[in-house]
TrEMBL record:
It comes from Krasilnikoviella flava. The electron transfer flavoprotein serves as a specific electron acceptor for other dehydrogenases. It transfers the electrons to the main respiratory chain via ETF-ubiquinone oxidoreductase (ETF dehydrogenase). One of its GO terms (molecular function) is electron transfer activity. Belongs to the ETF alpha-subunit/FixB family. Heterodimer of an alpha and a beta subunit. This is Electron transfer flavoprotein alpha subunit apoprotein.
Amino acid sequence: MSTNDPTRNRTALVLVDPATEVRSSVLELLTIARGLGRVEAVTLEAPTVEVLAQLGAYGVETVHQAEVPTDALAAAGGDGARHLPSVVGATLAAAVRRTDADVVLAPATFGAKEAAALAAHVLGAGLVIDAAAVGEDEAGRVVAGKRVFAGAWDTRCVVTADVAVLTVRANAVVPEPAAAPVATEVDPLPVALPGTAGVVVTSREVKERAPSRPTLEEAAVVVAGGRGTGGDFGPVEKFADAVGAAVGASRDAVFEGWFDRYIGQTGVTIAPRLYVGAGISGAPHHRGGMQASQVIVAVNADPEAPIFEICDFAVVGDLTDVLPQAAAAIRAHRDA
Ligand SMILES: Cc1cc2nc3c(=O)[nH]c(=O)nc-3n(C[C@H](O)[C@H](O)[C@H](O)COP(=O)(O)OP(=O)(O)OC[C@H]3O[C@@H](n4cnc5c(N)ncnc54)[C@H](O)[C@@H]3O)c2cc1C
């Protein structure tokens, strides 16, 4: 579904929030947007110099910075309220009206999904949540590919409305800068909130990310541990660090208190390029959150483990033997 016709007269708006760093998932959106037409960005706060340079490298000529009335923000709990989905949704709608954009692309975070839905409602736009691929059909309509029913079906959604609003999963494409960088201008975008923001922010804490590990939702490689670790996530974490992966777990491992975040239908949904599950049986609830991964590797001591039914590579063995050996082999290969 590649769409790289530079003559296309379409504008694609990309949500960049927060504007203090452009995450890899947003660079992917900018790459997809360039394939759809002219790219513009929208932010909720002043972009830093580094962010402007990155946006320019990805071909963004204009970034629209929301100007939300301070009294509306104060009523909603202060400056942190500018990231509320109701405010972001109103900003996206205002940006579409200002730019006459045809497509809005946002990351597939919970907040961005809610904002995308609100903006699509206000604009009467077509909405696709959790797209894994974006392109267009023969008639020039925006088409999104997405996996549904716990990854069991691949669907193709054609947006028939004038405006398409899509949230796109991380790892949909490999981020690629534009052939030539451009200078990015900041354009103030007045945003009127319809009534109140709906909720009041009472406290907001931005958590520092461990600099050495990617986030679970956006990582290209995820290594997950289950009850088969017996509570020792050391081999899982060491292997993850050898391949630059994020670490996750099954729900049972988290409920045992062995790790803090779990993957699955009631946990984090991921679609990395590579998922490695160690000591995880592959229960349906877990599969629902990882089955959309592009390549699945399972390490399990039981040759009958259900996860082997859905994996691309099966390693039957004790994870405390397999993972350290695999990590050592990867390091040796890298150092060679
Ligand atoms: C409403 C509801 C929602 C749920 N949502 C989720 C969810 O979102 N995510 C989720 O993960 N679960 C969820 N669950 C729980 C889910 O049903 C399973 O119980 C859970 O995923 C099992 O975790 P596990 O694979 O780590 O453990 P187990 O099923 O006990 O599997 C452990 C595996 O480790 C293997 N093993 C043992 N020792 C070793 C070793 N040394 N080396 C290698 N392999 C070894 C075993 O052969 C086994 O296959 C939910 C359950 C309910 C009821």
